[in-house]
């Protein structure tokens, strides 16, 4: 019995030793796992700390190398960045940020041949690295390779959410070059997901509205749609910059029946989400309420302004040749003293007023109104607008227009 108890004691001691060793191993594994998980969480905002927690992780090492390499970095810091990038690739040959860092350093040394070889390797590893794609764009531009540059623009804009903020301004300025516009049409013909947002951006922010308009015309000719919003903004900028003739030609390419001697959409039937300056455009602000309401029979323009408030309610840009014109239409719901009745006004685009036609109350003449304007020479662009005058009526000014046409006097 004594001998058996001794054997059991020895076995118990051995088992406890094994268990303790296993516990240490599990603790070590757990520590490594936890620290590595934490390193992955903080690797982008704090690569230094992440590298301290997981110095063997090549991707984290690569991120630290990239962070240390900045345009302002001193030679010592650049050398450290290069050593870390090389270490990262020994740890993980697919660490793209390390490859890109070494490629940029080669370029800065003037070794373009080496830089191209390095970035070629980077492209094979991944197309999602922003720095690699930006370098490829710059390299293609430096070689006057427009199609190559646009190919990398396309890749970058497809793969990086940061790319539009960086590349749209550059590409928006570049379209002033006719060759780039032609090549860009080919790129956009592939219907990349960034195409609509770029056309909207360049319509509002393009430095040269004529280049933007030409790009949009080429896109339409190639069967590539341009949004109503982008088109409307582009036409507005053309008119504002003094290119109303080009704006009108662009408008008529999409509206072949448009006549410069007549206002358009007399019964508010056009279903336009983003009206261009040549379409009826309701004017809304904090004080007045306006809308075009459509049904199967056509539409109406509805407006309301509170007491003592006036202003423009509706407008449409015209390209009327010099001559005499007649305005004719129909209203409902208008009931105001003559002093506060709404009126139609035709003005030159520079602000010179050409005349007014006051709207009678809708109960008169069954709501029909008529009037005349004369357009002189030297006034190639005009604005036809409906204006509300402040009213003392407790209900303000309200009504509807269901027909309006401006045409030459026969």
Assess the beta-strand content as a share of residues. 15-25%
Helix count from the secondary structure assignment: 14
The strand order across the widest sheet is 1-4-9-6-7
Q: Over the alpha carbons, how many angstroms does the gyration radius reach? A: 35 Å
- SSE string: HHHHHHHHHHHHHHEEEEEEEEEE
State the separation between the terminal residues, measured CA to CA.
132 Å
Uncertain regions spanning at least 5 consecutive residues: 20-34
Helix fraction, binned, reads 40-55%
Largest sheet: 5 strands, antiparallel
* E-strand count: 10
Give the gist of this structure.
The chain is α+β, with helices and mostly antiparallel strands. The protein contains 14 helices and 10 strands.
Task: Identify the notable features of this structure and list them briefly.
about 400 residues, alpha+beta, five-stranded antiparallel sheet, about 50% helix, about 20% strand
Describe this structure as you would to a colleague:
- The structure is a single chain.
- Helix content is 49%, strand content 18%.
- Mean pLDDT is 86; it is low at 20-34.
- Helix 9 (163-174) crosses helix 11 (195-205) and helix 10 crosses helix 12.
- The strands form 2 sheets. A 5-stranded antiparallel β-sheet has the order 1-4-9-6-7, with no helix packed on it. A 5-stranded antiparallel β-sheet has the order 2-3-10-5-8, with no helix packed on it.
- 33% of the residues are buried.
- The chain is built from 14 helices and 10 strands.
- The chain is an alpha+beta fold and 410 residues long.
- It starts with a helix and ends with a strand.
């Amino acid at each position: 019995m004594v001998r058996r108890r001794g054997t059991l004691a020895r076995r118990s001691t051995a088992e406890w030793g094994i268990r303790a060793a296993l516990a240490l191993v599990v603790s070590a594994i757990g520590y490594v796992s936890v620290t590595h998980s934490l390193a992955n969480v903080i690797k982008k905002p704090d690569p230094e700390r992440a590298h301290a927690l997981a110095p063997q992780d090549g991707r984290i090492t690569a991120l630290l190398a990239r962070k240390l390499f900045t345009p302002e970095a001193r030679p010592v810091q650049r050398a450290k960045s290069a050593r870390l990038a090389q270490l990262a690739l020994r740890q993980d040959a697919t660490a793209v940020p390390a490859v890109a860092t070494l490629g940029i350093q080669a370029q800065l040394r003037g070794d373009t041949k080496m830089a191209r070889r390095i970035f070629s390797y980077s492209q094979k590893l991944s197309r999602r690295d922003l720095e690699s794609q930006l370098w490829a764009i710059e390299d293609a531009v430096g070689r006057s390779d427009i199609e190559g540059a646009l190919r990398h623009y396309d890749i970058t804009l497809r793969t990086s959410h940061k790319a539009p903020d960086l590349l749209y301004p550059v590409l928006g300025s570049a379209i002033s070059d006719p060759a780039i516009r032609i090549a860009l049409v080919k790129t956009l013909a592939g219907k990349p997901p960034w195409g609509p947002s770029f056309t909207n951006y360049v319509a509002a922010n393009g430095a040269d509205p004529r280049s933007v308009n030409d790009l949009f015309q080429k896109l339409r000719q190639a069967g590539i749609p341009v949004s109503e919003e982008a088109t409307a903004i582009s036409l507005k900028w053309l008119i504002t910059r003094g290119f109303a003739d080009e704006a009108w030609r662009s408008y008529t390419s999409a509206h072949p029946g448009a006549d410069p001697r007549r206002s358009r959409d007399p019964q508010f039937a056009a279903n336009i989400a983003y009206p261009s300056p040549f379409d009826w455009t309701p004017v809304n602000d904090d004080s007045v309420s306006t809308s075009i309401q459509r049904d199967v029979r056509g539409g109406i323009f509805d407006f309301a302004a509170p007491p003592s408030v006036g202003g423009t309610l509706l407008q449409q840009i015209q390209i009327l040749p010099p001559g005499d014109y007649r305005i004719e239409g129909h209203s409902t719901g208008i009931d105001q003293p003559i002093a506060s009745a709404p009126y139609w006004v035709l003005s030159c685009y520079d602000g010179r007023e050409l005349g007014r036609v006051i709207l009678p109350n809708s109960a008169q003449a069954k709501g029909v109104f008529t009037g005349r304007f004369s357009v002189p020479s030297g006034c190639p662009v005009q604005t036809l607008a409906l204006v509300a005058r402040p009213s003392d009526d407790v209900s303000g000014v309200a009504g509807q227009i269901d027909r309006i046409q401006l045409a030459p006097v026969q």
